[in-house]
Design brief:
elongated, single chain, two-stranded antiparallel sheet, 314 residues, 3 domains
């Protein structure tokens, strides 16, 4: 009677399980340990897919034991476990992102509920981490030990911004927490400096002036708008245009602010710039407006400050 493969394999296992056979195998292994290990490593490399297939099959047949062994191994080898996880993370980045995106799309309601719950439970922790990371970046690029503006020396944290010295870098987050995380992750690269909102805005206006058209018609038009702006700003400043909060009188950084918010304004919501100045003059300078610099205007609009500028809070 011809034996099947399974019968031959079972008979071989029974033979190998005998104590005397095991002792001989152990003795042979100890004498030829290096050669056998080298052969084993070489064979595993040449037959990687087959080895992985056998491992997967063994894991399926012994799931609980495999999980227990895996947990113990990761617990006893934290450094190797972390390195192994990082290798897998880097090698399967695109697959993981695609799988995560697919899961979010298929479980949209559950994902949003998880995010809301997580934000509620960790809002203070997340704010603290964001603040600490921002302070690291501001301190690193500042000229002094405490964060300050490179141009004017402003030290109020709420007024400071990270500026791109030579223009925005592609995929660096552009601004806010995304930019902070990018800088820390990439070990504080060059091309960044710390400026206050006013100095950053002045730098932007200076860069734009070189791009303006120099035709007589456009120069005349710009002078006309500047005259109108100065007239409107002088009215709401009761004299020379200046910020009603901090007192700065540089026209390039001054802006027209709706005291009670744009929602309550009587003009059309999309009016801005010279169109808004024209409307104000035509309507005999109505109340509800004030002059603020860009720094105080942005600070006033931040919800974290309860619509108050740090100058007011002090």
């Amino acid at each position: 009677m011809v034996q099947t493969d399974e019968e031959r394999l079972a008979k071989k296992r029974e033979y190998n399980s005998r104590p005397e056979v095991k002792a001989k195998q152990r003795e042979y292994y100890e004498k030829n340990k290096e050669r056998m290990n080298a052969q084993s490593i070489k064979w595993n490399k040449e037959n990687k897919e087959l080895v992985n297939q056998r491992k997967r099959k063994h894991r399926e047949n012994n799931l609980e034991d495999s999980r227990k062994y895996g947990r113990e191994w990761h617990r006893n080898n934290p450094i190797k476990s972390k390195a192994q996880g990082k290798r897998y993370y880097d090698a399967h980045k695109e697959q993981r992102l695609a799988k995560a995106k697919e899961w979010r799309e298929n479980n949209r309601d559950r994902y949003l509920a998880q995010q809301v719950q997580y934000n509620k439970e960790n809002s203070e922790k997340k704010y603290k981490i964001r603040f600490e990371n921002r302070m690291k970046v501001l301190s690193y690029y500042s000229l002094e030990s405490y964060p300050n503006c490179k141009r004017c020396g402003e030290k109020e944290i709420g007024f400071l911004e990270i500026d791109h010295v030579e223009g925005v870098i592609k995929n660096d987050g552009r601004g806010g927490n995304a930019l902070v995380n990018y800088i820390i992750k990439n070990n504080f690269p060059k091309n960044y400096q710390i400026l206050c909102t006013n100095c950053n805005w002045m730098k932007y206006r200076e860069s734009q002036k070189s791009l303006l058209s120099q035709t007589k018609e456009n120069i005349r038009s710009r002078k006309k708008v500047l005259k109108l702006k100065t007239e409107v700003f002088s009215h709401y400043s009761n004299g020379l245009p200046r910020c009603s909060c901090c007192g700065i009188d540089t026209l390039d950084v001054l802006s027209l602010d709706h005291i009670d918010g744009r929602k309550n304004a009587m003009h059309k919501k999309n009016l801005d710039g010279h169109e808004l100045y024209t409307w104000i003059r035509q309507n005999e300078y109505p109340e509800g407006f004030q002059i603020l610099c860009m720094m105080c205007n942005f600070a006033k609009g931040m919800k974290s400050n309860d619509n108050k500028c740090p100058h007011e809070m002090k």
